[in-house]
């Protein structure tokens, strides 16, 4: 029986790259957003350059987006991994396997998908065992930049999805300008191998000039996709938590407005009446002084009936801006719980539904990291048969491993004093995108009677001493 292969082309369009870019910009923080000021904090009509620069300097990002994503993935790996694969220096830069998987997972939830390339160092001839150990000549992992990916082709053979073509932008020190690197799967009967090419676009027609090419004697393209959320598309996805990024961006813009409002409110304003521009003769000499003011400049006046007074603002604008910032921060906290079990202000029914969805979402990320890790290890063993395939599993910890029913049971036991505060905080930290610190001193203070009077305690001690003497 011969199965027909259906080929599909995935072109990474601007609708996808715009969302990837927004997610990346917010993730990178204040400096990146200020660099892209035209997009995220544009100059207002009629606003002076000096005023715009002042407004830009007062905009600061409270990066809830980055903290939520990184903490969620870190919680999945906080109790380590179980594997027989060599964990040291998996990317040729000294990164161990657990740290690399954390980067890979964060990239997946940030963009919705992450692409990991398995490559080998280039060398002439066949290295012996000693040279392999001495120079660490082994396949290594590399996370590709999503914003450089240009085209993907894949085939569906029955229920199997097979990557057939992958192209991304790159640069090499030996060549000038932007290059394209291509991996293409070639099939000849039962034989499969991968051809890689380095190409450069030239001329107005963007014709490709081949610079380098080579053959990799393996049956699959050594690129593994890692999805950050469940979706119907193949080899492409969009950021699953972009709503939180939009709220974070709104907060960045609101801090700028609040900073300007605070500056204006803290500076008394000078008001006057009956003012006009100074009159001058034909030679430009002032013949009658008038006044023209702004919050930053004052010009003299000689008008007899002019009136000048200082007026201070009442601070109502400051209160409104503070309330607006607090409202945005509250919404960000609620959205960040999308990587958590429950929302703090929802009903029990809504919490149960949301907990199931959120738990399924983060559990999906856990499964994806495990699947991708096993696939990467498998490709390494294809490159080098002396490296065993091995096993891989994330130890069962972190977000998504505690059900709402278990949380309710833990809270009940804690309320009865059967679970210590320290143990309770440790459990809660597994379900939150941030850590709660356990304060033992505060617990000791709470154990004491807050309503007791020191004088009464001294009298009680004296009474007990007298009873002992008697």
The major sheet is characterized as: 6 strands, antiparallel
The number of distinct helices, counting runs of at least 4 residues, comes to 14
Q: What structural class do helix, strand and pairing data support?
A: alpha+beta
Indicate the overall shape.
Answer: flat
**Average pLDDT number:** 78
Biggest sheet strand order reads 1-5-6-7-8-9
**DSSP strand content:** 15-25%
Order of helices and strands: EHHHHHEHEHEEEEEEEHEEEEHHEHHHH
Low-confidence stretches: 127-132, 340-356, 449-459
Over all CA atoms, what is the radius of gyration? 32 Å
In helices, the fraction of residues equals 40-55%
How many domains, in number, for the residues?
Answer: 3
């Amino acid at each position: 029986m011969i199965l027909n292969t259906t080929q599909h082309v995935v072109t990474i369009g601007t609708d996808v790259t715009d969302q990837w870019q927004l997610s990346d910009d917010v993730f990178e923080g204040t400096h990146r957003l200020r660099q892209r000021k035209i997009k995220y904090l544009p100059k207002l009509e009629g606003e002076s350059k000096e005023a715009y620069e002042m407004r830009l300097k007062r905009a600061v990002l409270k990066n809830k987006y980055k903290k939520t994503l990184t903490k969620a993935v870190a919680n999945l790996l906080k109790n380590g991994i179980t594997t027989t694969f060599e964990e040291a220096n998996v990317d040729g830069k000294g990164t161990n396997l657990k740290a690399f998987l954390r980067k890979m997972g964060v990239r997946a939830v940030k963009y919705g998908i992450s692409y990991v390339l398995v490559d080998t160092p280039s060398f002439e001839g066949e290295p012996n065992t000693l040279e392999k150990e001495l120079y660490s000549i082994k396949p290594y992992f590399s996370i590709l930049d999503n914003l450089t990916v240009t085209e993907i082709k894949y085939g569906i053979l029955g229920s199997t999805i097979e990557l057939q073509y992958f192209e991304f932008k790159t640069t090499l020190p030996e060549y000038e300008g932007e290059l394209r690197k291509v991996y293409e799967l070639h099939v000849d009967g039962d034989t499969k191998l991968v051809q890689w090419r380095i190409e450069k676009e030239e001329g107005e027609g963007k014709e490709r000039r081949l610079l380098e090419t080579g053959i990799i004697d393996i049956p699959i393209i050594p690129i593994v996709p890692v999805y950050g959320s469940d979706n119907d598309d193949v080899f492409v996805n969009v950021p699953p938590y972009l709503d939180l990024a939009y709220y974070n961006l709104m907060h960045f813009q609101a801090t700028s407005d609040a900073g300007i409002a605070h500056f204006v409110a803290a500076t008394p304003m000078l008001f006057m009446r009956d003012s006009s521009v100074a009159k001058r003769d034909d030679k430009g000499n002032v013949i009658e002084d008038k006044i023209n003011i702004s919050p930053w400049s004052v010009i003299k006046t000689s008008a007899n009936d002019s009136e000048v007074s200082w007026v201070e603002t009442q601070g109502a604008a400051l209160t409104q801006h503070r309330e607006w910032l607090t409202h945005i921060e509250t919404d960000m906290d609620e959205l960040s719980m999308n990587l958590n079990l429950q929302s703090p202000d929802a009903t029990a029914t809504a919490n149960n539904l949301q907990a199931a969805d959120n738990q399924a979402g983060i559990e999906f990320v856990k499964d994806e990291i495990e699947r991708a890790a096993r696939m990467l290890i498998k490709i390494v063993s294809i490159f080098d048969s002396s490296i065993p395939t091995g096993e891989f599993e994330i130890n069962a910890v972190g977000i998504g491993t505690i059900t709402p029913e278990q949380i309710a049971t833990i809270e009940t036991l804690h309320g009865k004093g059967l679970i210590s505060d320290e143990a309770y905080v440790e459990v809660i930290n597994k379900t939150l995108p941030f850590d709660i610190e356990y304060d033992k001193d505060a617990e000791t203070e709470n154990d004491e009677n807050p309503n007791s009077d020191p004088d009464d305690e001294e009298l009680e001690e004296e009474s007990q001493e007298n009873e002992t003497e008697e």
